[in-house]
Amino acid sequence: MPTIFKLRYQGFPMTAEKPVVTRFAPSPTGYLHIGGARTALFNWLYARGRGGKFLLRIEDTDRARSTPEATEAILKGLTWLGLDWDGEPVSQFERKDRHAEVAREMLANGTAYKCFSTQDEIEAFREAAKAEGRSTLFQSPWRDADPASYPDAPYVLRLKAPRDGQTVIQDAVQGDVTFRNDQLDDMVLLRSDGTPTYMHAVVVDDHDMGVTHIIRGDDHLTNAARQIQIYHAMGWDVPVFAHIPLIHGTDGKKLSKRHGAVGLHEYAALGYPAAAMRNYLARLGWSHGDNELFDDAQALEWFDLGGIGKAPARLDFKKLEHVSGFHIARMENDALLAEIDAFRAETEAPALTSIQKERLLPALDALKAKAKTLPALLEQGHFALIERPVELDEKSLAALDSVSRGILGELTAALQNVSWSRDDLEASAKAIGDAHGLGLGKIAAPLRAALAGRSSTPSVFEMMLALGRDETLARLQDQLG
Hints:
single chain; mainly alpha; Arc Repressor Mutant, subunit A; 3-stranded antiparallel β-sheet; 12 strands; 3-stranded parallel β-sheet; elongated; Rossmann fold; disordered N terminus; 20 helices
C-alpha cells in the first residue's frame, strides 16, 4: 500500500506566477464512486493541461469508517483510470496537530473564540427558537464573553464569523453565489477533545498544499461559503472554486445502485477500457463544441472550467458503449492486450497464456472493429483461447453432418500445401464449394464449427490465419475422426 505521509506547512501565498495546483480528496470509506472518479479526472486534466500539479489527499479523519482497504481501492481505481499524482498521498488525520495550531492562531488573532456551551444548552436554544419562530442557527453566548468569566470546563473553538453582510463565492462554474452571513453559523473548528472538524481541516490542508483551484461537486457549495471565512480569518488567498454538478441516472434522479454500476471498479469489471472511461467521464458534464470522441492529448488541450455545464449530467450506458467501441477500434494491439490483461485480473479470470495471446494477436484487427467492450471482443475471439479438442455446441454439431464432414475432408486435403494467405485459403474453399455446387456460406458453416465449436464467430479465413496452418489442420482433422 502506498505510503501516506505527514505534509509539512509550506507557508507560501498563491500568486499569479505560481503553477496551477489541484487536488482530489476522497474519504476512504468505500470504493471509488464514478462521480469521484470524474472529479479526479477534471482536476487531473486541468492541472496536467497547464503544466501544473495534481495532488492526492486522503481525508481519513473519520477513524471509525476509514479503512486501509478503502484507501487501497481508491488508489487502485485512480491508477487503473490512468491518473498519476504528484508526490505521495497526504493523510489528513496525520495533520491534526497542524489543524489545531491554525485554530489556536485564530483564537489569538480574535477570529475564533472558546465556547463552553453544552449539547443540552445548544439543543435547548434551538427548541426555544423553533417555538418562537426564530432562526434555529445557534448563537453562542460565549462569542464576546470576558475571558475572566470562563469556567473550568470543556470547550470547543468556534469561528467568529461575520454576522452582517454577505459571503460571495466567485465560482468558475456556478458564477457568483451569495450567502447572507446571518444564515451562516459560528462553526466549530476544534472539538472539546482537541480534534479538528472536517470543515476546518480541509481549508488548512488546501492552503498548506498550495492548492490554487478547488474543483469538486456542487454538494460542497454551502461548505465553500463557510470555508472562505476561514481563509479570510487567516489572511490567506482564496483559491479558485469550481463546483461541478453531480451525476444523475437516466431518470434524472441522483445516481444510485438502481441505475447500474456506480463504482469505478464495476466499470473496469464490465470491460470498458480506461481510455474510453477517461473520454466518457470527461464529456459527462463538460463539452468542447460538438466533440464527443477524443483522445487524451485533445482532452488535455481542450479542457477548461468554462466548458463545464451547470445542469447535472446523466449517465448513459449506450453512449458509453459507443465511446468504448471507438477507443477499442483505434487502440494499438499491444495496448489492447494490456487492457485485456487488466480486465481479466479485475474479474479474477486466468491470465491469457503466451499461446493464447499469439493466436489472438493477429485476429485483433478484425475483432476490435466491431467490439464495444472487452468481454464482447473476447467472446468473438473465443476460438483463439480454446484448446483442442474443440468442444462443439448444439448448432455446430448440426453443421457437421456426414455430408459436411466429407466436404471438410476434401478441404483439409486441399489445404495441406496451399499458401497460407487469405486469398489462397478463400480460393481453395471456393473451389471445393464449386465442385459440389455450393456457395462459400455452405462451406463456411462446417469450417466454423470445427475451428471454434460455435456458430457465431469472425470470418473463417480470419480464424485460420490467426490459428496458423498446424493448429487449423489439427482442428479440422479432429472432426474427421
